[in-house]
Automatic annotation (TrEMBL):
Keyword Transcription regulation: no
Signal peptide (residue range): none
Pfam families: ABM (PF03992)
Protein name: Quinol monooxygenase YgiN
Residue intervals of the ABM domain: 2-94
Length: 100
């Protein structure tokens, strides 16, 4: 499995717009994309307007397919102007322990 962790620092005052767009994108991704296994939106407790997206896909092709979906494209239109800085960690999942 393939994982990305996206660190997103928002411009101040954009939390609500970001959360509205990103929670819809995350829910649609898991619901509608067979290759998307996990899409968590995580808010940092210590740093205002800092979020992490934790996403697990079947493989890199599933992530590429995700980026072609209408919900991804719609969320990017909303969130891109809200972002101050963003970085991505790309990794392979070597162990996963989902709750059954």
């Amino acid at each position: 499995m393939y994982c990305i962790i996206v660190r997103t620092q928002l411009k101040p005052g954009n939390r609500e717009r970001f959360m509205a767009a990103m929670t819809e994108n995350a829910a649609a991704s898991v619901r509608e994309e067979p290759g998307c296994h996990v899409f968590d939106v995580i808010e940092d407790r210590d740093t205002p307007d800092l979020f992490h997206l934790y996403e697990i896909y079947a493989d890199e092709q599933a992530l590429a397919a995700h980026k072609q979906t209408p919900h991804y494209k719609a969320s990017r239109e909303v969130v891109t102007p809200l972002i101050e800085v963003q970085s991505v960690i790309r990794a392979d999942v070597v162990a996963s322990h989902p709750r059954a």
